[in-house]
């Protein structure tokens, strides 16, 4: 049996819709694989009752088919589905890394990202790789049609997950079809600022670079309490706040000394809006690792 841990991720970071992603320290999915004649899947852990065990409908099963690597796959979910924390991607990433090792395929990190993205396509309708890239490679990642960049960064983050479900498929449906040139210019400025911030480990630049006026407001409307949580996080010292992935999780950047206060403020603001929530304090984390061979 071979076991891989793949972390939760936060995609978009505001200005990098379908492009930026970041690995979080926690939570994570743990996936174990054994060779078999045909693929079977068992799921346990957070939200397991909502996750299909049919290999054609589970991101890990789609990855096994893509790699032509049949296996008995056991998934222990740490990342709750429909969270905005790359739940489906964490299983896809872990399965890609585990099956590549099990069958000694020797794929590169970038090849593994492409395979895992096919798993994502099966559930979200499109092969966006901005969650699987950081879950496999770690760090802050930039996904383009022609490749993936990964940058190591040391920036404190808080991911606050409310007890609300927003499916990525639905949240992709509210993204506007077009935007103005002013918004394009603003988004490019933010994205460049955020990238420089990651390169310099600068929470102020990262936070400022999250600002975006097209996708974020459309998705924020799906999250009860969003404006109050943003205001509370900023008052507690967050340098920037945005929707994590497609939501409902909300991501904040901050300085280390403010991380605990930002986390508490976000949870409290959700609770004041009548929504239970929990906060994960993290830095920019590592990618998937084999934990047992
Ligand atoms: N291994 C898996 N882990 C989590 N969700 C999965 C998995 N395989 C398929 N799914 C489906 O994907 C959807 C959740 O994915 P998504 O909406 O992208 O959540 P998240 O925003 O957390 O990534 C659910 O409908 C779930 O049933
Ligand atoms: N770029 C995608 C990211 C979805 O992330 P998830 O964690 O919500 O699955 C999008 O914004 O749709």
From TrEMBL:
The keyword Metal-binding does not apply. Keywords: Amino-acid biosynthesis, ATP-binding, Cytoplasm, Kinase, Nucleotide-binding, Threonine biosynthesis, Transferase. Belongs to the GHMP kinase family. Homoserine kinase subfamily. Pathway: Amino-acid biosynthesis; L-threonine biosynthesis; L-threonine from L-aspartate: step 4/5. Catalyzes the ATP-dependent phosphorylation of L-homoserine to L-homoserine phosphate. Residues 197-271 form the GHMP kinase C-terminal domain. GO terms for molecular function: ATP binding; homoserine kinase activity. Its main location: cytoplasm. It holds the Pfam family GHMP_kinases_N. It is found in: Cytoplasm. GO terms for biological process: threonine biosynthetic process. It is an enzyme of class 2 (transferase). This is Homoserine kinase. GO terms for cellular component: cytoplasm. It catalyses: L-homoserine + ATP = O-phospho-L-homoserine + ADP + H(+).
